[in-house]
Amino acid sequence: MGLRFVAISAVFSGVADLKKVFAEAREHRRLGRQTLLFVDEIHRFNRAQQDGFLPYVEDGTVVLVGATTENPSFELNAALLSRGQVMILNRLDTTALARLLDKAEALMERPLPLTPAAREALVATADGDGRFLLNQAETLFAVELDAPLDPAGLAALLHRRVAVYDKDREGHYNLISALHKAIRGSDPQAALYYLARMLTAGEEPLYLLRRLTRASVEDIGLADPQALVQCIAAKDTYDFLGSPEGELAIVQACLYLATAPKSNAVYAAQKAAWKSARETGSLMPPKNILNAPTRLMKDIGYGRGYAYDHDVEGGFSGANYWPDEMEPQTFYTPVDRGFEKKIAERLAWWEEQRAKRS
Questions:
Q1: Which among 233, 136, 218, 154 is positioned nearest to 183, based on CA atoms?
Q2: Spatial separation of the C-alpha atoms in residues 82 and 3, rounded to whole Å
Q3: For the chain, how big is the Rg over CA atoms in Å?
Q4: How far apart, in whole angstroms, are the C-alpha atoms of residue 259 and residue 255?
Q5: Around Cβ 294, how many Cβ atoms within 10 Å?
């Protein structure tokens, strides 16, 4: 491109280094040559430092190329992102990793000492990381073997790759999202897989229990009220037993949620009720259901005409409980699944009784 090239790493650079780079780039631009600035691990710069790039990017002093292993939408300023393009470099697939091994063998002018099954296992253990795969291949080329290794022999010789998982980064959020959605989608096998991915990578069991408990009320609710009980019991069991025995209770809760009937009626009802409460402000309840602890309050009608439901035939009075200025609302609509099916029948009967009394 005919540009002057400068590369820095955010790991080893600070404000003074950036000022020097920008000053030199501005001087070169006066001489008619633009600078391409490559910043490795750009997410390591804090927000203020990232803001420092803006004027030099905007006026064309530098063409900025930043590399990061993190999700840019989490780690980079929106202003900086809006002035550039995000290019995603995906993990290497099996075909690409196999080509890397082919190139390594061509360079060494001999095949890897592996059976076909062991070669497949080697590619699988790389988990999309070409650098790791080549390091493993280098180790294999360096050892003297009497016969090609099978998968068991390969595992004994090489260390298994540790799963890439940062508990406060994108991998964490991707897996917890996948776990929650597998539960919501009633796929117990996939839910258990993502639960295992997180636990074996070192995720905090109590974090997972919190998310399972949330799923029990958000995606199951009253379709199966025992879902919440299972999650709280799993939390108590884990507190009591610890790891690894207590993790079995987490597994049980996960599978219970994934196989339970689903309903977000409670979740939707909460959203609708909160919205209505914000919109209606501070309307007074009807006087008949207000307490009247003083004579004055009784005189102005507090509690007058209140029907005590337990004294009414059928245990249901059908009285109005809504503010006088507000029409009755429907926030909670049970689904036709699980325990909520019975709730729906009960609500329908109450509605029928209200209609008769009115």
A1: 218
A2: 23
A3: 32
A4: 6
A5: 10
How many Cβ atoms sit within 10 Å of the Cβ of residue 238? 21
CA distances from 314 to 72, 93, 310, 347, 350 (A): 61, 66, 8, 14, 10
Q: Nearest 5°: CA angle at 104, between 98 and 105?
A: 90
Residue whose tokens read 């029928």: 352
Sequential DSSP letters for 122-183? HHHHTTT-HHHHHHHHHHHHHS--SS-B-HHHHHHHSPPPPP---TTSHHHHHHHHHHHHHH
Q: Per-residue DSSP letters for 169-194?
A: SHHHHHHHHHHHHHHHTT-HHHHHHH
Q: Does 163 have pLDDT greater than 60?
A: no
How far apart, in whole angstroms, are the C-alpha atoms of residue 109 and residue 131? 20
Phi, psi of 264 (to 5 degrees): -105, 20
What sign for the dihedral angle of Cα 44, 45, 48, 50? Answer: negative
Q: Edge-to-edge, what's the strand order for the sheet holding 4-9?
A: 4-9, 35-40, 62-67
Residue 51's Cα: distance from chain center in Å? 28
Answer for the pair 303, 292: CB distance below 8 angstroms, yes or no: yes
Give dist(CA 50, CA 46) in Å, integer.
Answer: 6
Dihedral pair phi/psi, residue 320, rounded to 5°: -90, 130
Non-local (6+) Cβ contacts of 215 within 8 A are 180, 183, 184, 257
> What average pLDDT score do residues 20-46 get?
91
pLDDT tens digits, 278-334:
888 778 888 888 888 888 888 888 888 888 889 888 898 888 888 988 899 999 999
Q: What are phi and psi of 36, to 5 degrees?
A: -95, 115
Distances in Å between the Cα of 274 and the Cα atoms of 146, 268, 279, 327, 340 are: 72, 10, 9, 16, 22
